[in-house]
C-alpha cells in the first residue's frame, strides 16, 4: 500500500464534495496513490470516499476512521460495499471505537463495552464481506439472514481498526486486516502494536496484518512555528490517557513531538522511523491545509 494522505475538504468552499474531489485529483496528479477521509459530523466519509474513487480512477480511497457508534454493522457493510463498487476495488474501510464525550455531546448518550462492540461489529462485517450472508445474534448487535446483504462489485473490503490498546489490538488481529493507529510513535509501533496484533492474527490463522501509522505532518522551514502549530492542534489528545501512555512510552516531553515537522528531508527521515519499526505504511495527516503546504506534503508522500 502506498504512502497515504489524510484529505480534509475545505469547509468554506462552495461545494464540499466538489472540493474534496478536486483536492483528490490534484493529489493524484502529484503522485499520491492513497487518500484517507475522517468521519466527523458533516460529510459521510464512506459515501465521500466512494464518490472520490469513482471520480479519480486508480486512487486508493479509505476512511480513517468511521466510529462504530451509533452505526449498526449492516449499515456500515452496505455503505462500504457501495463505496467499493464505485471505487472499483480501491476502497478500504477504517473504523474506530469512538469516544464517550463526543458521543454524549452529539447523540445524548454513549455506548459502554467498546471492545465487545468492536468484536461483534467485526464479526458481522466479516460474515457479510467474506460469505455474502449473515446470521448473527450477539449481546451488542444482531443481524438476521432475511435480506440480501451483498453488493455486486462491492467486495472484498479491507477492514482496518484504529486500535492501540491491548484488548482492541487482539480483536483487530483476530478479525480485521490491520490497524490505523494515530499518534503512535515509532517505539509504540515497534514494541507494542506490531507484537500484539501480529500474535493475535497468527493465533487465528489470519494473514500478517497491515500497520498503517497515521502521522501528523508539516513541511516547513520555520520549525519553531510548526511545532507551535502542532502543539495547538494536538492539545486535545494530550488529555486522553491512551495518548498520555504513548508520550510516556516514547519518552517525549510533549505530544507535539509525535508530529513530523521540518523540511522535506527531515520529515522523510521521521516517517522512515515508523517503517523501520514495523509499520507497513504511513499516512500523513496535514497540520496546515493551505494548498502550497499541502503540495509540499503530497510530494513527500509520493516519494517516500
UniProtKB/TrEMBL annotation:
<dbReference type="InterPro" id="IPR011251">
    <property type="entry name" value="Luciferase-like_dom"/>
</dbReference>
<dbReference type="GO" id="GO:0016705">
    <property type="term" value="F:oxidoreductase activity, acting on paired donors, with incorporation or reduction of molecular oxygen"/>
</dbReference>
<dbReference type="InterPro" id="IPR019910">
    <property type="entry name" value="Lucif-like_OxRdtase_MSMEG_4879"/>
</dbReference>
<dbReference type="InterPro" id="IPR050564">
    <property type="entry name" value="F420-G6PD/mer"/>
</dbReference>
<feature type="domain" description="Luciferase-like">
    <location>
        <begin position="11"/>
        <end position="280"/>
    </location>
</feature>
<protein>
    <submittedName>
        <fullName>F420-dependent oxidoreductase</fullName>
    </submittedName>
</protein>
<dbReference type="InterPro" id="IPR036661">
    <property type="entry name" value="Luciferase-like_sf"/>
</dbReference>
<keyword id="KW-0560">Oxidoreductase</keyword>
<dbReference type="Pfam" id="PF00296">
    <property type="entry name" value="Bac_luciferase"/>
</dbReference>
Amino acid at each position: 500500500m502506498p504512502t497515504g494522505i489524510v484529505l480534509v475538504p475545505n469547509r468554506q468552499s462552495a461545494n464540499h464534495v466538489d472540493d474534496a474531489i478536486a483536492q483528490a485529483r490534484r493529489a493524484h496528479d502529484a503522485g499520491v496513490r492513497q487518500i484517507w477521509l475522517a468521519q466527523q459530523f458533516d460529510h459521510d466519509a464512506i459515501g465521500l470516499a466512494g464518490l472520490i474513487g469513482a471520480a479519480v480512477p486508480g486512487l486508493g480511497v479509505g476512511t480513517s476512521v468511521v466510529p462504530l457508534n451509533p452505526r449498526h454493522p449492516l449499515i456500515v457493510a452496505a455503505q462500504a460495499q457501495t463505496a467499493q463498487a464505485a471505487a472499483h476495488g480501491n476502497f478500504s474501510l477504517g473504523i474506530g471505537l469512538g469516544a464517550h464525550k463526543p458521543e454524549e455531546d452529539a447523540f445524548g448518550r454513549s455506548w459502554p463495552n467498546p471492545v465487545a462492540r468492536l468484536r461483534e461489529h467485526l464479526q458481522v462485517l466479516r460474515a457479510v464481506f467474506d460469505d455474502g450472508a449473515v446470521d448473527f445474534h450477539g449481546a451488542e448487535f444482531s443481524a438476521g439472514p432475511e435480506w440480501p446483504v451483498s453488493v455486486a462489485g462491492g467486495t472484498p473490503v479491507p477492514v482496518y481498526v484504529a486500535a492501540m490498546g491491548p484488548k482492541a489490538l487482539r480483536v483487530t488481529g483476530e478479525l480485521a486486516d490491520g490497524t490505523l493507529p494515530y499518534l503512535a510513535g515509532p517505539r509504540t509501533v515497534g514494541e507494542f502494536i506490531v507484537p500484539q496484533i501480529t500474535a493475535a492474527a497468527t493465533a487465528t490463522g489470519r494473514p500478517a496484518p497491515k500497520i498503517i501509522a497515521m502521522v501528523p505532518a508539516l513541511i516547513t522551514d520555520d520549525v519553531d512555528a510548526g511545532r507551535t502549530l502542532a502543539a495547538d492542534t494536538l492539545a486535545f489528545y494530550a488529555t486522553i490517557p491512551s495518548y498520555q501512555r504513548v508520550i510516556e512510552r516514547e519518552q517525549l516531553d510533549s505530544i507535539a513531538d509525535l508530529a513530523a515537522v521540518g523540511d522535506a528531508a527531515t520529515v522523510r527521515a521521521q516517517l522512515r522511523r515508523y517503517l523501520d519499526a514495523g509499520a507497513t505504511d504511513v499516512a500523513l495527516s496535514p497540520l496546515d491545509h493551505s494548498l502550497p503546504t499541502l503540495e509540499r506534503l503530497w510530494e513527500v508522500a509520493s516519494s517516500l
